Amino acid sequence: MLKGNEDMIQWHYHTKEHEDPLSTKERADDPAKDDAKISEVYDAKTGYGLLNSDSLRAHVDISSKGADQFVELYYKLFDTQRGVLNRLYRDSSAILWNGNAYSGITPFSEFYNKLSSSEHIINSYDCHPLPTQSLDPNTPGSIIVNVSGTVKYSNETNPRLFSQSFVLSPDPTNGSFYVWSDCFRFV
Amino acid sequence: MNLLETTKKLSSLLQQFGNPVFGHEVLLEVLLEVLLEVTDQGQGQDLLNDNGLFDFITRKVSREVEVNISSKRSNPTTNTVSFLVDNISQAKAIAALSGIRYNGQKLTITTSEDARIQRDRPSEPSSRSSVGQKTLNAIQVFVRSRYNGGFLNLEKIGDDDILRAANVAPPGASSRSESGTTIIRTAAELFPDASTISFASNELKSLRPIASLAQYFPKLMNLSLKGNRLRDFKDLDALSGPKALPHLRELILLDNPVRDVDIALNKDDISYRRQITKRFPSIQMLDQTPVSGKIQFNVGDIVESPKLPMPIRGNFFDSQSTQETVNEFLLNYFTLFDADRSMLEHVYDAGATFSYSIVTTAPPSKGPAKNTPGNWHQYISGSRNLHHTQELGARTSRLHVGNKAIVHQGLKPLPQTVHDLSDGAKYSIDAWQMTGLLPSICIYIMVHGEFEERLTDRRSRRSFERSFIVAPALQGSSAAANGWKCIIISDQLTMRSYSGAGAWTHATSPSNNTPAVNALSANAAPIPASIPSTGATMPLSAVIAANIKTSLPNAPALDSFPMPGMSQVQHQKALELQQLTRLKYAYAVECLTSTDWNVAAGAVLVEQRRASLPSDAWQ
């Protein structure tokens, strides 16, 4: 089951040991300072979200460009270089494929290596930036990307409609994004 | 020849075969003929050709029995029409209609048993009603006479005495003659295992008159068509191909123009033989010469392996509490989405995001992708399909942020919808809890399903995908005050042409979770028409509240709401202490307040005080 995430509690602003390589600000040891920073994250007026109109365009720009890149890259890899796909996942990734759950990339790659070779055609995708740790648009936070399209497996005659939903998150060690969760279904 | 003579001849033949059962069969079949008599003159022939009459009769008896009407004949002098049915019950059912009116005329209907009595009167003309039986019986006699140990010799049918006596035209003699089919069918009834049949010397110009061989003798192995008049290869089409006679091993086409002319033309039989083996791929002997020189491949039996490495499963939930929470949430959400979208202001976070996109191409099952944007003009201007929308301004404006903007600019402009939540099979839900993604725990939900779009002038069915990321509603928030346990952080909707629920309802394995709830509304009482907004945290449905447990041992505590006035950091620390000590949230908070929000000190304190803490302090 998808229990992997429980180990991944990355309270970015909470654990003292953790360095945020993307932040240029000094880490605050003073809880009061933390509070001030955090009250920007959760505010009764704006709730969990932090997308006020000033930064909205910037957030949209970064997140949607990220989605553009990801969608192109992911399906290209899936169709032509599936062996490399695992670099986009981690052991903590939560993966669901037509109701079959995989905790982490290793069992999932065993599965998709058995899947016949594929050809994906993308019909639509959309993405939202998520109100994760940082509200600074220069340090992009996680995004959710939903993709719709058709996929044709070489051992089948007809293409199938599919819907796939990704949550992409930055890897704390190097800032590159990976698949935090992946939910795929034929529709 | 009149009936009497025929009957005499028949009985002498019967005696030849010495089959008492055969005589019984004759009797039975006589009953199956139905006679229609109409009162008006000159209607007999018209009735014969009036298919409406036979449809009418078929329909009238359809409640009792399904009838099969064949061999229609008419007798203009007596204004009667007769036909055959399959068995007594059909005959009786139709006869029971006698007296019914059709097109203003009264139909008198009798079965041939009644007619037989009349027939025996010498003054009656030779019975039109017995034509059917006479023929059938003759054919049976004929077939029997031609069978010998697996071999059915149906050559020279036209010269046969028995059939001549019964006025049966040979197959192919006239375009309307069905004798080929009748002969073959009769033969199949009598000798279903015949594996060798000869239709030699029957002056056949094409195989159509005997095409029913494929139906009645599908396992036929040897066929002779020697000495017929088959001229072109296409004359063989009626029995060609791998599906017609898949077990045919030997074929003889000697003495047919199609063979002789081709061989004369080419000076050898190679191309002729190739044409034939192409049409009859299973044969190994043609014209008494083995079919040879073929490259064969033997791969044994190819076992069909399942196409997908994993079965398609139904709804996925990572825990019972997720399932209950999500089912309740979706039920309430879609109910309001259909009924009153302004009520949804409470369930979206102040910074939530919503957008929708549409897919205008038709699903692949409906043939090559067809773009039908005309169906979607309601949605096109707001559709945030990043695949098509590249420009930042549009990408930004089509993303709605904040509960008010979402409801008023995002949701309300969309057409009216109806989601049929009573049928869980129409929806697929995958949901699980996520920790570490957002500042609070959240649930990720992916729904696939359908809705009916209701415009003023028409209704359309659509399919949709919708992802929700929801977080617990904080105590004292307007969401909680309106009965919501969750608030929406992100809501992404994709709509496309209706494609049904087949992709997940044909799940080859049962769904992953507890058998109880796949239908969204299985646990719910009917939703009250107006949502009460007292200050208390009252659920939208009283019944659901009783069923939903707010804390289960294995689920991260969804009931841990930060208290008003607590900062986020304090909330996180409380959660951390909870995890370390398994204290209930309120107690963790209390503990931390006395240790100046130092988690480590708090944990120590808990250990010191463990004995004195009440039992309900623990999760």
How does this structure look, described?
The complex is a heterodimer of chains A (187) and B (619). Chain A is α+β, with helices and mostly antiparallel strands and 187 residues long. Chain A folds into two domains: 2-48, no CATH class; 54-186, Nuclear Transport Factor 2, Chain: A, CATH 3.10.450.50. Chain A is 26% helix and 30% strand. Chain A is built from three helices and six strands. Chain A has helices at residues 31-41, 53-80, 105-114; strands at 89-97, 100-103, 118-129, 143-153, 160-170, 177-186. Chain A has a six-stranded mixed β-sheet, covered by helices on one side. The longest helix of chain A has 28 residues, at 53-80. The model of chain A is unreliable at 1-41 (pLDDT under 50). Chain B is α/β, with parallel strands linked by helices and 619 residues long. Chain B has four domains: 31-120, RRM (RNA recognition motif) domain (Alpha-Beta Plaits), CATH 3.30.70.330; 133-290, Alpha-Beta Horseshoe (Leucine-rich repeat, LRR (right-handed beta-alpha superhelix)), CATH 3.80.10.10; 316-503 and 522-542, Nuclear Transport Factor 2, Chain: A (Roll); 556-617, Helicase, Ruva Protein, domain 3, CATH 1.10.8. In chain B, the strands form three sheets. In chain B, strands 13, 14, 15, 16, 17, 18, 19 and 20 form an eight-stranded mixed β-sheet that branches. Chain B has a seven-stranded mixed β-sheet with strand order 6-7-8-9-10-11-12. The longest helix of chain B has 20 residues, at 320-339. In chain B, 41% of the residues are buried.
